[in-house]
């Protein structure tokens, strides 16, 4: 594991970008926001921006090809989470859930079942709106992950 991880963000639809930057600054950890050219992101101290083309999987492919063991990836995409876990990275959802070997198979299976239902004409609920509680839970989880890394370094 590298001494200082990078927080890598699947930034196209990430609702907690400002929370990530705030926590990262507290730990002096660099942030890399990866988004398609459709999203306008501003570089700021400690935050790098990588813009990729608009194709469906460009952000995921960039992250999968550049993430390092020990990095922390923030994504809502279970498929990307599976890939980064296999590379030794930590994967968090924007709601503060940590993806790991104990839950990722279930999440992938559930995603598959819901997609099958939709293809068959069924309806499924989308995710509930982000709440202040969700944002706080995310900040607490990211802080805990970074504190644990710092203590184990």
From TrEMBL:
Region listing for Disordered, in residue ranges = 115-153
- The entry's protein name is UPF0178 protein DL346_15200
Please give the HAMAP family that the UniProt record associates with this protein: UPF0178
Q: Which organism is it from?
A: Paenibacillus montanisoli
Q: Where is the composition biased (Polar residues)?
A: 140-153
Basic residues: bias regions: 115-126
Q: Which InterPro entries is this protein grouped with?
A: UPF0178
Name the protein family.
Belongs to the UPF0178 family.
């Amino acid at each position: 594991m590298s001494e200082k991880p990078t927080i890598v963000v699947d930034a196209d639809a990430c609702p907690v970008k400002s929370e990530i930057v705030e926590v990262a600054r507290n730990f002096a950890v660099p942030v890399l926001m990866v988004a398609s050219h459709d999203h306008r992101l501003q570089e700021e101290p400690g935050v790098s921006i990588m813009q990729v083309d608009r194709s469906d999987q460009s952000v995921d492919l960039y992250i999968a090809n550049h993430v390092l063991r020990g990095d922390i990836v923030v994504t809502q995409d279970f498929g990307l989470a599976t890939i980064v876990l296999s590379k030794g990275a930590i994967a968090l959802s924007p709601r503060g859930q940590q993806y790991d070997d104990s839950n990722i198979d279930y999440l992938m299976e559930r995603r598959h079942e819901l997609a099958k239902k939709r293809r068959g004409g069924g309806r499924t609920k989308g995710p509930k709106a982000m709440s202040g509680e969700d944002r706080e839970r995310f900040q607490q989880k990211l802080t805990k992950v970074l504190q644990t890394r710092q203590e184990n370094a």
